[in-house]
Write a structure and sequence with these properties.
The complex is a heterotrimer. Chain A has helices at about 1-15, 15-35, 40-45, 50-70, 70-80, 80-85, 90-110, 115-125, 130-160, 165-185, 195-200, 205-210, 215-240, and one strand spanning about 215. By secondary structure, chain A is mainly alpha-helical. In chain A, helix 4 runs parallel beside helix 9, helix 4 runs antiparallel to helix 10 and helix 9 runs antiparallel to helix 12. The radius of gyration of chain A is 19 Å and the shape is globular. Chain B folds into two domains: about 5-220, P-loop containing nucleotide triphosphate hydrolases (Rossmann fold); about 225-290, Alpha-Beta Plaits. Chain B is built from eleven helices and 14 strands. Chain B has helices at about 40-50, 70-75, 90-100, 110-120, 135-145, 165-175, 190-195, 215-220, 235-240, 270-280, 295-300, and strands at about 5-10, 15-25, 30-35, 55-60, 65, 75-80, 150-155, 180-185, 200-205, 205-215, 225-230, 245-255, 255-260, 285-290. Chain C is an alpha+beta fold. Chain C is built from eleven helices and 26 strands. Chain C has helices at about 1-35, 55-60, 80-100, 115-125, 175-195, 220-225, 260-270, 305-310, 445-450, 500-515, 535-570; strands spanning about 40, 65-70, 100-105, 135-140, 140-150, 150-155, 160-165, 205-210, 230-235, 245-250, 275-280, 295-300, 315, 320-325, 325-335, 340-355, 355, 370, 375-380, 385-390, 395-400, 405, 425-435, 465-470, 490-495, 500. In chain C, strands 9-8-10-11-24-23-20-17 form an eight-stranded mixed β-sheet, sandwiched between helices. Chain C starts with a helix and ends with a helix. Classes of the chains: A mainly alpha, B alpha/beta, C alpha+beta.
Chain lengths: ~240, ~300, ~575
Amino acid sequence: MLNIFKKEINHFFSSLIGYIAVGVFLLATGLFLWAFPDTGILEYGYASLESYFYMAPYIFMFLIPAITMRSFSEEYNAGTIEILSTKPITDNQIIGGKFLAALFLVFFALLPTLLYFYSVYQLGAPVGNIDTGATWGSYIGLLFLGGAFVAIGVFSSAITNNQIVAFLLAIFLCFFIYTGFDYISRLNVFYARLDAFVEQLGIDAHYQSIGRGVVDTRDILYFISLILVFLFFTKVVLEKRRW
Amino acid sequence: MSVQIQNITKTYGTQHAVDNISFTVGEGEIVGFLGPNGAGKTTTMKILTGFIPQTKGLAHVCNINVSEQPIESRKKIGYLPEHNPLYLDMYVKEYLSFVGKVHHIKNIKNRISEIIDLTGLQIEQKKKIGQLSKGYRQRVGLASALLHNPEVLILDEPTTGLDPNQLAEIRQLIKNLGQNKTLIFSTHIMQEVEAVCDRVIIIDKGKIVADDKVNALQLKGTKNIYEVEFLHDKENILPKLKNIQGIDTVHQNTHNIYQCQSSYDRDLRAEIFNFAVQNELTLIGLSRKESSLEDVFKKLTQSNPN
Amino acid sequence: MVKKNKQKRLSKRVNSILTLGIFLLVVVVINLLGNRYFKRFDLTKEKRFTLTQTTKDLLKNLDDIVYVQVYLDGDFPSGFKRLRNGALEMLNEFKSYGGSNIEFEFVNPLEGLNEGAKRDVIQQLYEKGIQPTNLKVKDNEAYSEQIIFPAASVFYKGRETTIQLLENKIGQSPQEALNGSIALIEYKLAQAINTLQTTYKPKVALLQGHDELKPDDLQWMLNIMSSYYTVEQFDINKHLYIPETFKCLLIAKPRLKFNEPDKYKIDQFIMNGGSVLWLLDPMIAELDSLRNRDAFMSVEYDLNLDDMLFKYGVRLNKNLAQDLVSNPIPLMIGMQGDTPQYDLFPWLYYPIITSGDQQHPISKNLDAIATKFVSTIDTVKSAGVQKTILLSTSPYTKLQYMPIRIHLGAVKEKPNRAQFKKGKQPIAVLLEGEFPSVFKNRLKPNTQAVTDTIAAFTNRDKSVPGKMIVVGDGDIITNDRSSKGEPFPTGYFRSTKETFANQQFLLNCLEYLIDQSGLIESRTREVKLRLLDQGKIKDGKTFWQMLNLVLPLIGLLVFALLYNSLRRRRYAR
């Protein structure tokens, strides 16, 4: 698994697309948070990264599919999946390695944004007047969110050998699972009956919950379950393609 | 037994890609896997390497069940898939070191330089795979298949798409490699089998139609073909030709050219000349040619309508 | 053989579907279990989402069963489910500290009742102080009404109190209101338990003797207060001093002059640690005065309290605040047959107060407050006294000073916005600390001769640490009455049928003034305001922008170059 993980990461870092994806992510968050007055932290006036954590899921919806779209699609397309699958490694190792590599890359893309934290920390009145604990909580939430999106992206990529299709499908699935359930829960059919349950199926509710700075085992469990479900789907798809 | 295939069937929908085939390959044997496109060669190889599961039957590599212990069996196999897929933006050594690590090879650096020497990649070893010519890519593919010193080497059409020079080189390479390994390689080029293999398995429409030593197969059936050309055509030449001792079948190519097949080793040209004289025919052409494996192959794969 | 193959393939497919099904089932079961057995880790600095130590102590020291009945059960929109879940979580949290002494139940009080019975239940709950919330429910194009009670009753040793779970705040999105309400659940539950637990209710004196508001005028508030306090009317003229058994003195809209002995009694009550809630109208201004006239002149009451308040740290201005954010009044616009027709007109003398101090437990998470003819308060220097402005008018305020002509015609004039530029004006101030006596170095009124002879009374020139709250409006505590004479809730505004948070504000004030448990502190959770240093931003805006915008990109570029050159060095040499 470690070898697949390393290979994926090297592959990402040696291609231009990877840097473009991370660069666009950093540029977009940077512009929204520091340059544009409507969403800017400086104009907001409060020493918190709330707007960052509010915005991040929507930017992730594009960043993560861009990272994951190649993970299987490209292997199918180049036929290299046959190399991997006939080496003495299991499907689980392949999927796990690819998942962890993409998650690591999300982490890598997030790393420079710690600078935002530093800046707000320095700009606080007095210095350090930011709820550090809550901010870490939000970062944890963001990582779990990233994990869920990565699992969805890897799954989308496993479905098709067309990277563009994988990319678009992943965006759609991420968006749907992030907010879709929220909208669905407001349908009349669910009103006052299943709406709270349907809402809990979506990522949003859980992300918000962790984002407050409260790490709840239920939310963690939700994210882990979501990730495992999609990785399991990926495994099924991978097997099915070979029948 | 290095490779053992027992009653393997692979179906896609209602179509049989491979239909109940069985064969074994002993240690150190070099086996050519011959068949027209779509005959089931690749499918059989993919089953052997565990890339696709068979619908029915058993496959063993070095006495390890491929379906039950896929990881163990894959360790024994070096595999070069059809079209030789590679990670084009990796460096040659980077790729080989990745493969080596996947196989948990010890002393990886030495082994890589060893294999680079063996496959003749020295000059190109510092390039990215994408920058290499097809022939060198094939060498990289072979190098990666050989890296972990597998007991069984499975090469799926390792020579397709190469120019004649590359072809000869790769063929030589395969021959060298096969000296101390069990080797199965598929091809649809007969000369290759004749040049490299001890044994040939011919497969057509998912079924094995021949499985024998190369020379035995060459001996099997028609041995000599005589092409006879007369100046003028006459009636009833064909049955009369057939009456010559040793001629099995006669086939009229054009009105005055006949093809005679014989299973006799002996040269029948004298008999044919005499026949012409006896029948007052003017013989203007008479050639004899030995039948090749290719003819055997054609014969076997065409005479099997279903 | 083909058939066999098919079966095998089929079984393969069934197998994989089965595995998938089992896997999903396991995931669902684990999640269901996980929902039952869970743990939370509150990473926030103030432990915003964790019980306070006071609450924990309260729960650990329970000696009998506390039974909580929450009226939130049944089907309602997800927002209220969140409130319900918030309450459920909090009660579970309570249970983990209170153990078997905490029992609770969620009920739907209207379930299965016919219309008549429903009305009875609603009436019963209303009498307990629980107001229903009407929800408009869209149901296949048709709107229907749903009545829910976002409230709970708490029972302990045969006594009962109710808590309102939903805090509506004007100008807040429902989402924010619910979040605020959820944040307050702990405080409300703990406070209810605390109230029930203390067999002794602190005594509050309702000052009489200067034409203050009568119990009738503030009947609703007295009813509400009675579950927490023992309120007694206290005619100051009939007593030589105010006993220390009273924890708080409530002075509601006095209209007659305080003589020096009365002032001395109040002063010494304060010096000995008593709290005072001053609800004062410095100006004579009643809407009733306009019943038969078009205008009147507002002049000051001669209360003779200025020197006293000044000494304690505030000056009550002889003015009236006009605010563009205000309640309307109904005026007759004509007759239709025999019935007079009314319409609502903006009445700038009735400011709606929305800008409470968001950091103070009294005004944190508090809804808007309705005032009538409110006067502003200035804080003045007073050593050892800390001043907190609890409430202020909106930024669009205009001040008029005595004498003020108040006329009805004003409703028809469009206010000139340029004149409403006074900014936020304080109208309620909390004073805390050691107050200097207004009679220090002064001749004491003749009551002293008497008080000197009473052992319980000690004359002080400087108070022990104490608290008082001064509000520039006396009507804030009054309640309207229905045509049947039933009191409406304090803060209920008849003409708009809106209920303002006057009741909550006054309860918070009293609790803060009297509080001994420290529970009110849990109202301040989630308050700490974290601001950026605007000076630093002004000085270095470009620097910070560039730092955060460009540095990550440069970092990425450097990484890219470094990584790829390392890779080349490793494999291409």
